[in-house]
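Chain A, query sequence.
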Amino acid sequence: MSVMIHSAHAARKLALPTITLARNLLPLWLLLPLAGCGTTERMIATSSIPEYDYRVRHPIALTEAPRTLDIFVEPTRGRFDRRSAAQLREFAGLYRKFGRGAITIMAPAGPAGRPPIEPVRDALFRAGARARTIVDRYPAGPYLAAPVRLSFLGLKAEVADRCGQWPRDLAVGSGAPVDWSNKPYWNFGCAYQSAFAAQVADPRDHVAPQAEAPMDTEMRTRAIESLRYGQDPSTYWRISGDRAISTIGGAY
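Chain A, predicted structure.
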């Protein structure tokens, strides 16, 4: 009997360190899942972005580049039509916003002689482009109609590199391991970036948005009144008169 009591007491003494060790390691076991989540967030691979992202490969940059305009001027009196007059006003507006320095006016020098450029210069002055003008000529050849070319140096948004570069084949051809990587080709996105840069009216919008304009109190009040009467101001359309838009499909 005394031998059994002694054995049970010895077993209890051996189990106490094991229970104490498990009790001390329990907080560490609970923290293991959290530690695994933390290491996952830190292991983000970014080495492939500069090589394959088209926005990094073909970035839009603000540069000072020439802005040009070609208009057709009557060769004897220097007259031009309404379309050319509207283009000159737009050209003068671009110079007021983004241009600097002189405006170059190049007249064609052909067999018919150089057309007078004073009307063009006066139109630019009346439109607000009151800058120094440099008059020059370019060889037009034997053509019957040649434009008057205007240009100035100003702020412009363009793609930093040149499109149309093909350092590698599109398919498996060069035998390089990159042919099997299924990544976008080098020229991918360059045409899109060039078109996007040309369509934005103000190049500075690529860097930061414009400042907010003061709110239109009258428009806001009208919208609030429409909502009070159960009308949605964004989708409410009114057609004046009782005439239908089309007779196809019967009258409504």
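DSSP finds seven helices and four strands in the chain. Residues 1-9, 39-49 have pLDDT under 50 and may be disordered.
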